[in-house]
Each structure stands twice: as C-alpha cells, then as structure tokens.
C-alpha cells in the first residue's frame, strides 16, 4: 500500500495499533472487490485521496500486477496488421478489447434510464458481438480482460459481456469517456467496474433510503390533500431527489465541508425546504394559508423562498443555504457560485474543500438556457472557480408542455452542454434509489478529488401537470397514460425491500405513519437538524440592517497616509519592466502623489481601493478587461515586458492587508453579474465591483438587474452592496457604445432600492466608492462612469479633495458668478457638464448657472433645494442631457426636479434640452452627432 495512504489511515484514531494488518487486508480485499468489504470501509477507502497515477491508492501487489498487465497491453496495443496477428484467437482477443471499450463509451445508450419506459432508443450496433465478428459460440472462450476491473486477468467472453452489461447498461448511464485526463477516466473505470455499477448497501442504508423517499412522497401527499389545487410545483415522480441531496450533504460533511449552498428552481423546492433544510412544516402551512411571515418587504411566493439551517454530519456541523430564486430559470446558478466563492474566500478555502455548491436544474432549462453554458464556462477560471459544482438535473422529460426530444433540444441528452467542460455525467433511473445513491457517492467523491463539475441526470417524471392547477394529458397524452399506471418510487422500493426481507411490511407502514404524524403535529422532519446552530459558520449581517441612505458616514482620509500608500503602490519590484505608456501613467501618478500634477480619474480610483484596503475592507473587481480598464485608465495589473508575469501593486500594500482581487472576466455579462451579485450578498464587508466593458453590455444581464439587484431586498430581505461601473457618454462613437441605458436603471428605482450615480470628478468617484463600503448601508450602486473624462483637462481634483470632503449628491456652480445675475439654471449629469461649462466660459455668459446632479437616485431633493435657493432671480430652469428624450434621466427623474422647483419657484416650468426622442441610443455619423450636440447645448442656454 502507498505509504501516504497507510499513514493517513493510521493517523485516524480508529485505525491505530493492532488493527493495522487487518485494515491492510481489508484494503487489499477492497481493491479486488469493493463489494466484499463492509459498506463503512468501502466508503472510507473510496474517499482516500487519489495518489499518483493510481486512484484509489493501490496495494504493492496490485501495482506490480498493474505494470505487468500494462506491459502486456502495450505489447497488444501495437497496430494490428495481418502479419502480426498470429492466430484467430489473437484476432478475437483484439475485438474483445474493442467491445470493452465500446461499452465504456456507449453503454449508457443501452441503459434502462426511463422509469416510464417510453424512451425509444436503438441499442448501439457496436455493443453487439457480431459487430466484432464474435458469435455466441465464443461466449465460453477465455480472453484476457485487459484493464477491465474484473478482479482477474482472464475471463470468458460471457463473463466479460455480462460484467459490462451490468456495469454500463442497467439503471445507470455513465458518460465519462469524453474526459481528456486519463487519471480521471481510470478513476471512473475502477469505481464503476469494480462493483459492476451497483454496490451492495447495508440494511441501515436501505432503510434510510426508504425513509427519505417516504418523507418526499409524504409531504406532497399531505399538501395535496390539505391544499388541493394550490400551486406547489410538487416533486411527485422525482422523489429520489430527496435521498440524493441528503447523501450529498452527509458525504460532503464527512469530507470536512462546512457550508453547502443550494440553488434550485421551483420544482420540488417545498420538499427540499422541509425535508432537507428542516423548515418547520407549520411555517409552510402558514404560507399556504396566505399569511405574511416576513416582517419587511413585499415578499415572494413560497416556491421561491430561500432558507438557512445547520445540520449534523459525520464530519461535524454543516451550514446549509438555499438561495432565493426568481422564476427566471437557471439564473440562480451563477448567483450560487458567487455566494460559494465568497464563503470560500472568507475561509481562505482555495481548493473548495470547505464550501460546496449544489445546482439543481430542470432538464428543459439546462438544455435551453444560455446562462448554463456561461456558468459552466466559468467553472475553472481564476475569478469564478469554486472547486467543482454538483449539478443535479430533475429530468422529468418534459418542459412545461414542450416535448423532450423533438422540440426542447437538438442534443441526445439534456445534459450534453456539460461536456464542454468535460464534466462526467451520470444518467440514473429515478426509480432505482440505490443506483441514485451510488451515482451520488461517485459524484461527491469525484468533486472532492478532482475539484471539477459533475452532473447527475435524475431521469424521472412529473406525476402532475407543470403545477397542480394544470392538466398535462392534453399535450402529453401517452406519457400521462403511462404515468397514471406508474406506482410511486417509494412504493416500488418498499416492495422490493419487503420482498428481499430487509424490512417488514409493518416497518414500512410505521415509517409512513411516523412522518405523517410529524406533519400533523407541525414538527421538524429532518433528524439531523441542529436546533442551536453554530452561528460562527455564517456572517452576521446585523450591523448592516436598518440604515437609511442618508446614514452618516465619513470618507475623509489622512493626507499623509494617503501619500504613503500611493508611494507604496509606485514602488515596483526589482526587474519589473513596464510597457512605455504604462510607465508614463505611473510617472504621472508619482507626480500626483507629490502634489505636482492634478489628480486624474485613474489615480483617484486607485486610491479609493488603497485606502479601503488600508482600513480593512477586501476589494474584488471583475469584468471585461478590468485589469487595464477598457479605456486604459486603471492599470491595476502591470505586465512585466520581459516575461509577461503580472504584478498587482494593490496586493502589496502590507502583509496584513485584506485581499485585493482583480480578474478580467470571461466575455459574459449575465452569469458574471449574477456571480458578483451572489458574492456581494454574502460579503458585506467588501467592495465588490462588476465593470462592463461598455455600459450597454449590461443589457445582456438585464434579468440579473431586474430580478436580483433591484428587487432582491424587497422580495427576500437580502441586502447587497454590489457596485456596477458602466462606461457611458456621447462621444460620437455610434449607437451601441454611447449609452449605458441610464433609463433602464432609473425606471426600476423605487423604495430606495438602489443608488444611481454619475460622478464627474476624480474626487467624486473616490468618495463614492469609499462611501459604498464605509457607510453601513448595503445598497446596490450603479455608477455611470466616463470615457473622455478619464483624460479631460477639467475633470481633475486635488490631493486635498481626496483627504477632505465627501461625495456630493449635487455639485453647485463652481465659477464665481454672482447669483443675483443668474436668471437661468441648467441642471445636468455626467460628461455634458464640461461641454456646457466650456460653452458658457467661451461665451462669457454670467446669467446662467450650471448645477450637476451626481446622484440621480435616491434623488437628492433637499440638496438640490439648497443649491437652487441661492438664485432668487430665476426665470428659466432647464434639464440638459445628451441622451434622446425617451432615454437618459428626463422621464424618470423630472418629477423629482419639478417637486423641488414647485416648492421654490412654482411659477417656473422645467425645460428640456437634449436630443429628440430616438429609437437608437445615438447616431452613427460623426457629423450628425456634432450637429445634435451643438443644438442641445444651444437649447440649454437659449431654448
Ligand atoms: P446564509 O449563510 O446565506 O445562510 O445566511 C445566514 C443568515 O445571514 C441568513 O439567515 C440571514 O439572516 C443573514 N443573511 C445572509 N445574507 C444576507 C443578506 N444579503 N442580507 C441580509 N441578511 C443576510
């Protein structure tokens, strides 16, 4: 046995002393036949980490045997030409090895996966003997087994074929031969073939399986009787999900996992809430009766609710969190990943051992929704990996009313998209609970060993319609004729246990009645639920609750320390050669730090991060090209010109500093923004930023904005301090990259749900970013960031502006204009301010004051009132914007401005200066753009 494994075993308390040789014998036995050792030992051996090329670890003799075999195989693997094949038997031997390989690759196509028996699949030709020139007459001939894990080197063809048939063509369809890594493939071969795809389970395990199925079925029956016709998106037909999740939790716990985050859609959610997370059934009944159970907010339907609890496992207490979920399918998956990554970062769990994501999908949604692909694509990237996700498909073979194969997809399985990341996929017949248990164990072990995604395709059915008020036989007549005849999974399994003498009929009945009376009494039905949960397992959000957006805060920062931090950022390690333009930017920053140059945007933003880190707040920034910044202003990641090695100065401020993470994202918006939402809703202490390459790209993530960012707090009471940076500005670059679609965000503003800001100076972005973390309020922040202002000669600040001051929601007129002379007030946001300023200065006008509204929501009515009241001789008040009239802030914000005006100057109306309403955000021709811009500026002063 490998020394490392032995050592680990001896180190376990229960394996010490004189047991050693007994354990070694057991292990030898296990390696030859996993079913020959008791289940606890099998489970223990299976979980031993993979060492070297052998997984699981193998005995000395097995290693020796393995090499002998390998040598033989290598000899055999030489190209077979007529001349080298000495005999008919040798030719057949080669064909037998090909047959073995075919079963491994395509056995799943002949497996019995559909509990309804409706799948019409042609058995693959290459699983038949005659495909290889073999016949029934060869069945009793002995052949070498190659690397088939059969426990012997030679076997008859009959034995070989039966073993393959049992392993690959029963109720588990295993797809793993597409995995490129041969160690992983071998791991699966060993695990599947050594038990012929079906291990023996103890009476205790079987009884527990039935208990979980009884719970799953019992709850739905109970709800169905008590609240007939009420929507609950029942799990009937897919009850095996409950033992499946139970096993994931217990087994992950025994590996040392401390938190598990689950994402799922509506189907089966109530069942998971009560039977897995231990939600009190009485609370659920209250929800069925329409009672309001959340104090704050407008709430959500019961099958979208999240939940948190702690359960006990063999490895200790595990915190479970079921994410809140909107009805937009699959979008919760990246949210869960973000939440998991945040928890892993909090625990410094780089490998993902301590926090595990479970993502539960529907078959139609997994095949149909693009965000699935995006989320899979994230799974091994630096920014987004979480050590592998356990995906479960509740495959009820129908999408609402859409048929499985003809309409719902073009692929053989709903799971085929997962192959893009080489995830192993296990299709399993949901009516075989032991097979479900087996693939679950395999999936958890794989995830824990290899830290990659794995998929369980739980092939089941949907006993009722899409919901309980829906009649399915109109659209799926044949399927529902079959379902009407189908006995439940629990019934079938209970019968098989009674027949096998594992349980008596009375015991089965007692299980059923126990569960029912627990529900009647409104008792918790999860035995492992921890009544006094260890709160140390999750974050305390109390400091962030109950603050108004006007909460006091102080974003000033000591000037000397600021300069020290700045100088530290500019001290580069020996040998780091930066690119020429980057060098110039750093040189300028040096001057800015010394007070020799006014401060620009890039400097101020960098110092916001540096000062927050200094004050103990972690910072995480992701998005397309964030390391450099789309417009080359940030350069937070320096690339050594000699060897390409990146250096991130903000990670080297001090030994004790919190983490500064910055990653260029994959070219996704939807999954990436959802991920960062999940991250931010789990990490209140950090500044979490997503930046769009161009502001309009956030369009691709609109569902995240609508269903999570702007409404998550009011629906679910989940706070979120996520910051979105959206480059915006009309610079004549055409329809797509001018506008970040400000109107979208403003239209969603209500109940002080988010903050929408348009800062126009470096000091403003600095204080805004600092305010976002220093103020205990946690609200999403949408920032329209500039493009040309990054280098505009007037968009500058001083070191003192950073050290003192705060974010100004309204910036009053900055020129020394006598308020008494002012008859016109122009209000605006963003870059157009500098165009207005330039025009006024050029024309030398003193009758017009220009006021910047830097926070459009929550609208700063009081601050605007203060600014406006300085002008007593106003005759015109204008809102000026670059966006067309149907876009920008005009429609969504004018009522706020009018309210301020009507209180101060009821006789004055509000005028509009901006582009005419337009279907596209901007024109494509530079000359048209310039004409429009000139007109809107003129209107602002004269219209
Ligand atoms: P979780 O770790 O997600 O299960 O959260 C544990 C507990 O922390 C929850 O039950 C909530 O009380 C609280 N909590 C978690 N996330 C948030 C959030 N984003 N806003 C407010 N409270 C939260």
TrEMBL record:
Record has RNA-binding as a keyword: no
Top-level taxon of the source organism: Bacteria
What is its cofactor? thiamine diphosphate
Q: What is its EC number?
A: 1.2.4.2
SMART domains, A to Z: Transket_pyr
Q: Which Pfam families match?
A: 2-oxogl_dehyd_N, E1_dh, OxoGdeHyase_C, Transket_pyr
Q: Which residues form the Transketolase-like pyrimidine-binding domain?
A: 599-792
Q: What class of enzyme is it?
A: oxidoreductase
Q: Which UniProt keywords apply?
A: Oxidoreductase, Thiamine pyrophosphate
Query: What is this protein for, i.e. what is its function?
Result: E1 component of the 2-oxoglutarate dehydrogenase (OGDH) complex which catalyzes the decarboxylation of 2-oxoglutarate, the first step in the conversion of 2-oxoglutarate to succinyl-CoA and CO(2).
Task: State the similarity comment.
Answer: Belongs to the alpha-ketoglutarate dehydrogenase family.
Which NCBIfam families does the record match to this protein? 2oxo_dh_E1, PRK09404.1, PRK12270.1
Protein name from the UniProt record:
oxoglutarate dehydrogenase (succinyl-transferring)
* Lineage per the UniProt record: Bacteria, Pseudomonadati, Pseudomonadota, Gammaproteobacteria, Pseudomonadales
């Amino acid at each position: 046995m490998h020394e490392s494994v032995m050592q680990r075993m001896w180190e376990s308390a229960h394996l010490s002393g004189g047991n050693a040789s007994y354990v070694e014998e057991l292990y030898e036995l296990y390696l030859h036949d996993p079913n020959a050792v008791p289940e606890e030992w099998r489970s223990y051996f299976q979980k031993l980490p993979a060492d070297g090329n052998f997984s699981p670890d193998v005995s000395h003799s097995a290693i020796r045997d393995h090499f002998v075999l390998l040598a033989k195989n290598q000899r055999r693997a030489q190209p077979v030409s007529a001349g080298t094949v000495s005999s008919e038997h040798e030719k057949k031997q080669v064909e037998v090895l090909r047959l073995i390989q075919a079963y491994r690759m395509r056995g799943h196509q002949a497996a019995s996966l559909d509990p309804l028996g409706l799948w019409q699949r042609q058995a693959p030709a290459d699983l038949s003997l005659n495909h290889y020139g073999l016949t029934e007459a060869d069945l009793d001939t002995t052949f070498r087994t190659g690397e088939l894990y059969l426990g012997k080197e030679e076997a008859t063809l009959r034995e070989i074929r039966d073993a393959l048939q049992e392993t690959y063509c029963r109720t588990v369809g295993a797809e793993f031969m597409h995995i490129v890594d041969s160690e992983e493939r071998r791991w699966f071969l060993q695990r599947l073939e050594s038990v012929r795809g079906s291990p023996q389970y103890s009476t205790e395990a079987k009884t527990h399986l039935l208990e979980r199925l009884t719970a799953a079925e019992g709850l739905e029956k109970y709800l169905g009787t008590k609240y007939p016709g009420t929507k609950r998106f029942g799990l009937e037909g897919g009850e095996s999900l409950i033992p499946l999740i139970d096993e994931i939790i217990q087994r992950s716990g025994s590996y040392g996992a401390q938190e598990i985050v689950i994402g799922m859609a509506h189907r089966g959610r109530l069942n998971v809430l009560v039977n897995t997370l231990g939600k009190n059934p009485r609370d659920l009944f209250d929800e069925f009766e329409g009672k309001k159970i959340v104090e704050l907010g407008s709430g959500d339907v019961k099958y979208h609710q999240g939940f948190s609890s702690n359960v006990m496992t063999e490895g200790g207490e595990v915190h479970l969190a079921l994410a809140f979920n909107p009805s937009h399918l699959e979008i919760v998956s990246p949210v869960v990943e973000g939440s998991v990554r945040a928890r892993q970062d909090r625990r410094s769990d780089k490998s993902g051992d301590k926090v595990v994501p479970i993502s539960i999908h529907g078959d139609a949604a997994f095949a149909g929704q693009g965000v699935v692909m995006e989320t899979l694509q994230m799974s091994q990237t630096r920014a987004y990996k979480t050590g592998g996700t356990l995906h479960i498909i509740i495959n009820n073979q129908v999408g609402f009313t859409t048929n499985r194969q003809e309409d719902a997809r073009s692929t053989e399985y709903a799971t085929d998209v997962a192959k893009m990341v080489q995830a192993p996929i296990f299709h399993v017949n949901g009516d075989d609970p032991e097979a479900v248990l087996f693939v679950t164990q395999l999936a958890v072990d794989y995830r824990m060993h290899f830290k990659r995604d794995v998929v369980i395709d739980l092939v089941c059915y949907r006993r009722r319609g899409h919901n309980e008020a829906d009649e399915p036989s109109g659209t799926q007549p044949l399927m529902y004729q079959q379902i009407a005849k189908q006995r439940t999974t629990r019934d079938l399994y209970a019968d098989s246990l009674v027949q096998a003498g594992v349980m008596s009929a009375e015991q089965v009945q007692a299980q059923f009645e126990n569960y029912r009376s627990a529900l009647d009494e409104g008792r918790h039905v999860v035995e492992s639920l921890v009544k006094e949960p260890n709160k140390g397992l999750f974050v305390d959000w109390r400091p962030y609750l109950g603050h108004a957006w006007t909460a006091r805060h102080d974003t000033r920062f000591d000037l000397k320390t600021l300069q020290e931090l700045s100088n530290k950022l500019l001290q580069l390690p020996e040998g780091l050669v930066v690119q020429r333009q980057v060098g110039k930017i750093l040189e300028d920053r040096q001057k800015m730090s010394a007070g020799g140059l006014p401060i620009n945007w890039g400097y101020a933003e960098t110092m916001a991060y540096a000062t927050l880190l200094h004050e103990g707040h972690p910072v995480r920034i992701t998005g397309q090209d964030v390391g450099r910044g789309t417009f080359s202003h940030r350069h937070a990641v320096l690339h050594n010109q000699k060897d390409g090695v990146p250096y991130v100065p903000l990670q080297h401020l001090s030994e004790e500093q919190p983490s500064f993470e910055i990653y260029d994202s994959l070219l996704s918006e939807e999954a990436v923004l959802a991920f960062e939402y999940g991250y931010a809703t789990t990490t209140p202490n950090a500044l979490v930023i997503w930046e769009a390459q161009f502001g309009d790209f956030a369009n691709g993530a609109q569902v995240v904005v609508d269903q999570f960012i702007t409404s998550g707090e009011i629906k679910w009471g989940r706070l979120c301090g996520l910051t979105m940076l959206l480059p915006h500005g009309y610079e004549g670059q055409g329809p797509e990259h001018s506008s970040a679609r400000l109107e979208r965000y403003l239209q969603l503003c209500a109940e002080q749900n988010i903050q929408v800001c348009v800062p126009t100076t470096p000091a403003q972005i600095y204080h805004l970013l600092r305010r976002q973390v220093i103020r205990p309020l946690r609200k999403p922040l949408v920032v329209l960031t500039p493009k040309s202002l990054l280098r505009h000669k007037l968009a500058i600040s001083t070191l003192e502006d950073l050290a003192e001051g705060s974010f100004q929601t309204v910036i009053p007129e900055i020129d020394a204009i006598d308020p008494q002379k002012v008859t016109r007030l122009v209000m605006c946001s963003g870059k157009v301010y500098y165009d207005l300023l330039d025009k006024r200065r050029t024309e030398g006008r003193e009758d017009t004051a220009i006021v910047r509204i830097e926070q459009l929501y929550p609208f700063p009515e009081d601050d605007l009132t203060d600014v406006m009241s300085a002008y007593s001789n106003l005759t015109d008040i204008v809102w000026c914007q670059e966006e067309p009239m149907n876009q920008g802030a005009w429609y969504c914000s004018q009522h706020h401005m009018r309210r301020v005006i009507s209180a101060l100057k009821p006789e004055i109306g509000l005028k509009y200066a901006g582009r005419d309403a337009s279907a596209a955000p901007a024109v494509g021709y530079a000359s048209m753009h310039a004409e429009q811009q000139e007109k809107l500026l003129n209107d602002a002063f004269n219209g």
